[in-house]
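Researcher: Next entry in the queue.
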Amino acid sequence: MGEKNYSVFTRLQESFFDLRIYQFGQERCVPMHLYGPVKRNHYLFHYVLNGTGVLQYSDSKDADHSIDIHQNEGFLIFPNQETTYFADKTNPWEYIWIEFDGIQAEKFVSQVGLSRDYPRYAMKDTTQSHTARRLFSSFIAEASASDYQLLANLYLTFDELIKRTAHKPELPARRTQLDSYVGKVQEFIEANYSYDVSVDDIARHCGLNKNYLGRIFKRETSKSIHNFLLEYRLSRAAQLLEESDTPVKNIAHQVGYKDPFTFSRIFREKYGLSPNKWRNQKLPSTSEKSTTLAAKSPSRSWLR
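Model: Structure for this entry, 304 residues:
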């Protein structure tokens, strides 16, 4: 039995909101290599470069399933979904994985045609798999690239998966309308977060009762409108702190806080550091954050 080979790269992308990457990596598994059962905190997509394996998962009704995954296919693990997966005995798989999340993650995932009930990705024409293979492989080949470049690659990867998917279910009219309400809230916040806006203002913009809109938004995003606005403001503040020398007081005003002390307190509650310490902390270099692992390090196997 040969040695297990894999590499893992982690990123710190707390200032990104729509999509953010937590880690990515590649593994060439030994026969029958198994991982699970386990639940994840974020979305985790595996794309199979070679070989085959089996995914065992619980669907939205907690029913158990087992499906085969082949070369140029993939599978998605959802947050808090229990899964187990293992490599084939004679033709073990090699895959690249990406762990991601963000407020737009669920939208992109659904456009690819994936759900808790249907986590397997397949292309309608496998002869067109070369672009997807190149995009996934570029995460590993360009692991030291900037966060912006990696995120750009993730968007391109989603675009390719959406175009090639063999499973694209039609959304019912009510589903489309709910997405429209959520989208209106997100668009309003993105355009007006720097002003003194309230949930009442957002509800008036959407033309809906505040409580009704709040229930819809919470059901669809697992966040209240208030918390979504708060997290959006803080993510933009973190980005400004990292990318500019603008005084903290001015940044507080730019993200909608009249009182810089209130802003600093809320920022510390979210990130565990004051705005100034967040700005001044010495982040590890990309080479320090990227770790190549071998089978001799079983304590780090949770990363996949």
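Model: Residues 173-192 form the longest helix (20 residues).
Researcher: Noted, moving on.
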